[in-house]
Write a structure and sequence with these properties.
It is a single chain. This protein is of the alpha+beta class. The protein has 4 domains: about 130 residues, no CATH class; about 150 residues, no CATH class; about 90 residues, no CATH class; about 70 residues, Arc Repressor Mutant, subunit A (Orthogonal Bundle). Helices cover about 50% and strands about 5% of the residues. It has 23 helices and 10 strands. Strands 5-4-7-8 form a 4-stranded mixed beta sheet. The chain has a two-stranded antiparallel ribbon with strand order 1-6. Strands 2-3 form a two-stranded antiparallel sheet. α16 crosses α18. The protein is extended and about 100 Å long.
Length: about 475
Amino acid sequence: MLKQGLEQKQIQKLSPLQIQTIKLIELPVQELEQRVRDELNDNPVLDDSPQGGDSDDSQRDVSISEIEDKENSGGSAEDAYSSYSDDDSIPSYNLHINNYGKDERPEYNTFSVRQSFSQSLMEQLGFRNLGEHQRTVAAFIIGSLDDDGYLRRDIESLVDDLAFRANVETDAAEVEAMLKIIQDFEPAGVGARNLRECLILQLEDKKSTPPVENAIKILKDHFDDFSNRHFQKIMNRLHLTGDDMKDILREIQKLNPSPGGQIDDSYDDRAQQIVPDFRLDYQDGELILTMPRFSIPELRINRKYADILENSRYSNERSQKEAATFVKQKIDSAKWFIEALKQRQNTLESTMGAIIDYQREFFTDGDESHLKPMVLKDIAEKTGFDISTISRVVNSKYIETHFGIYPLKYFFSEGLENKDGEEVSTREIKKVLRDCVDHEDKHNPLTDDELVDALGAKGYKVARRTIAKYRAQLDIAKARLRREL
């Protein structure tokens, strides 16, 4: 049986201003600059010229605050603009946002990263005497490499992708041949399909010596035993002495298991520069935070669009009404965008200020051991913002300090209690763990249980599973794999 009834529901709906603010908060400064430029291109009402557009006084800029006052008092945006019909009554101030700090320099330091991995390989490809078809195949292979320089796709898949995605007919033999050419590029080991091939490629690039030749033989014929550090078994099979094996291990330990990282393991094709969003100076015992001025222009609303609204009020022409509707929409959009930029500025300043206040001891001297345990919730509580807002602020943002440049994520870490019941940062515990491993007897390395005891002796109560987790995060191998001859 069907029933009809009424039901009340509460639905939270974000306003256009809230949506704009959320989108702008998560942008780092370089992307924000581009976003502002895009908005200027899309919205003719916005103006970024020093005098607000035309030099004619009748074209001077209009204040959004005046528009809002009219709207809040029941008047329309058109009424607000009409109040400035007399040139003498146009306020001398203009509408702009201070979406930057006090630094009046038009540009600020950018910190360039090195040449990208793929750029370096493409440059080397340009020096090879290849036909256009071969060059296309080779370039596709380079584009298929992972960030660490490995090719983790099989040859047949590349052949299929070249046909379907690049409309290039080829075969496995040609792809294999182009891969061999790429594997001859710098850095040595690039284009390898697994760790074994990567290490062998690097050894083959070195000057031939007995340790190098023996290392190649071991990796080719006894890789499983080598991976499991069954050195005695290898020595018996190849009739090697202990000194021979030490020389071989020294050669292999010099190799790079991630050749892509030699160019720049943090490179991102979308952003080849790190531009700090904040600058922190330490002067006379005071920490001074600024958001330096970059190439983000001051935004205003151009006065000439007021004339369109003004004229349309007394016109019955359809075209005039349509033009007024269009301008009104653009003015609203401009108002939301400008206000969102203001709110972004305030949110970023408040969040960074709270982080500095929380980690004041670290920001004073840069000593990592002074970093306190801090999670997003801590800063959310200090600022009154939502955790999701803090997360957006922290993401992809950097700060320049007097002791280096750091991503904001660096300052966040969970905490554990020490033997005195004090909460210490997991970063501090990881540092102690690293020190224990660095100073252990390499002939008899510490097991995870022994590391628990070692940290316990230093006052840190850590479970074995936590040690295993931190060891993996620090890229420290198990004790068996750290053992040396």
